[in-house]
Give the backbone structure.
Amino acid sequence: MLKIFLGFCVVVFSVIAGKKFTAKYKDRADFYSALSDFNSLLIRDMGYLKEGVLPAMEGDYGCEKFGEYLKRVKSAIVENKVIPAAPDFLEERDAVRVREYFSAIGRYSSFSQSDLLLSSRKEFSDRYGELKIKSAKSSALGTKLGFALGATVFIIII
Amino acid sequence: MLKFLPKEAAEDVLAVECEKLSEVRIRANKKIAVTYISGGEPRRKILPTVLNETEIDRAVFKLCNFSIASAEEQLKRGYIISSEGERVGICGEGVESDGKITAFKRITSLCVRFPRQVKGCAEEFFLKYIKKPSNCLVFSPPFHGKTTFIRDLGRLYSVSFGLDTLFIDERGELSLDGYADLGESSDIFRNADKTFCLVSGVRSMNPQAIVCDEIMTESDCEAVRFAVSSGVKLLATVHSDDLLNLVKKQEIKSLLREKIFDYIVGLKNFKVERVYDGNLKEIC
């Protein structure tokens, strides 16, 4: 009985570990989803209220890690410091792009700013699509591998 | 105040008669000049503080709330209103596109003005001359209290006559960014084009009086004619040091010839110096 209980615990643990192992793929997708929403808000702002970048940074974009990064970016802008490096769960090319984006917004005329935001909209949305598929695949694979590993250990135990 | 300046520079400026401060001039690599009011007259003081071009550029970016695009229209007109209501004139290299100035770069000078409400400053004139709502044109050289005077006169129209008074505040100076007491029956158009507001304000807000600062162009005058001919009482200002120079301004000359204004008021050092009637006859 104890062996079955132990084996069951191992399976649950392995599945959770498998999920955790692939969490970075979900984080990437969530980050890009929030970034895409942030960019869309700026586009709308440019068209009507023109309140600028800082008020947009106060918003909640449904991704805690993006929110934390926005806070750091905002404080860097206000304190005239270099835009901080993007979170390390992002792929290197994404991290570079994100930092580039935040270094550029707010510094141009409305014409150039609109151009930047509109071209970023397509780019972010495409990248989010890719990351979402990757995240779904990785998450399923992680769960399966975790379960398989747990099940193997379960068999060995009993 | 002056939150857009580097901390040390702001502290140095605010150490000078902070409550009486009326203008600060900042020029790249030159000492900051401060003007303050003492004994009713403007006085100037030169501070040892010097800002360079990068620091001025940074101050402008801060003034734009870190979004050049959101302050672009103001930048094109050569000034920015700070979040605390200070009006900051800018001077630098114009960027031209299709024959029009579309932006400024390499900004080398800032002129910060601190508009203040002086309640009652127009009361003496109001009680003596304005027995019924009238059209008034106030003139003086820059920095002699036109905006302060007309703000108070507008408030008196709103409070004493109970008129629906529309303040056209193109640069946030009249309403002090919403902080000024302009009376219960006042409406404010803020940070929007004067000509547009004069016309659309008459149509949409149905005002009984309009207060409008600095009439300058032919289109401003056209809009003034439209408002007055619609039966609205108008209080306006114009830059000029005396009546002779005032009538030399072609646009204003035609308004005066048409006798649009019932009173023309000349100010000097924040006080009424001369009052003329619609026929330009001196009555004070």
Summary: Residues 16 and 181 of chain B are 27 Å apart (CA to CA). Chain B is about 30% helix and 30% strand. The interface with chain A takes residues 58, 61, 64-72, 102-103 of chain B (CB under 8 Å). Residues 146-160 of chain B form the longest helix (15 residues).
